[in-house]
Specification:
- The protein is an alpha+beta fold.
- The protein contains four helices and five strands; from the N terminus they run E-E-H-H-E-E-E-H-H.
- It has a five-stranded antiparallel beta sheet with strand order 2-1-5-4-3, with helices on both faces.
Length: 161
């Protein structure tokens, strides 16, 4: 399994933590142009910076989560979705923290893994840390070396091939 990236969003839609391991594979413009019948003008899409990438991921999960709730009812939950290039896994805590992991398409559901990261790493190293702020205003992210090291070790030992 390949893990591309990991994000944590707070209840105010701010990305408070992001970690990238390997870049996601990019789709080709010519394939899209051929399937739509429009001419390929040779323009490659601009690479997104980390902040824009996080906003795009949050917008995607926000839209899909709302769509699932409207179509399925209040008891249905958005767990993951898959494209031809990656799979996005989602876990939301009771305090509205959103944990998102982007992996390759062959990966099974990682909802339990995201819950384990929340309980064993985030709660232990961020929530119980008296020096860590309760809220993260203005995009001030999680700044805890033990949490970052724990996430790195957890992903490398249990998720990476």
């Amino acid at each position: 399994m390949v893990v591309y990236s990991f994000y944590i969003f707070d209840r105010h839609a701010e990305c408070i933590y992001k970690k990238h391991w390997t870049p996601r594979p990019a789709s080709t413009g010519s394939k899209t142009a051929q399937s739509t019948g429009l001419p390929d003008l040779g323009q490659q899409p601009k690479a997104l910076n980390a902040e824009d990438d996080a906003k795009l991921v949050f917008g995607t999960i926000f839209s899909l989560r709302n769509m699932v709730r409207k179509l399925g009812g209040p008891d249905d939950h958005f767990i993951s979705y898959r494209t031809g290039f990656y799979k996005l896994h989602y876990y939301e805590t009771p305090t509205s923290l959103k944990f998102v992991m982007v992996t390759d398409t062959r990966t099974n559901n990682l909802r339990i893994v995201l819950h384990q990261i929340y309980v064993s790493l985030y709660v232990e190293y961020v929530v119980k840390n008296p020096l860590s702020p309760i809220e993260h205003p203005g995009g001030v992210g999680v700044n805890c070396e033990m949490f970052e090291l724990g996430v790195e070790q957890f992903v490398n030992s249990s998720l990476m091939d």
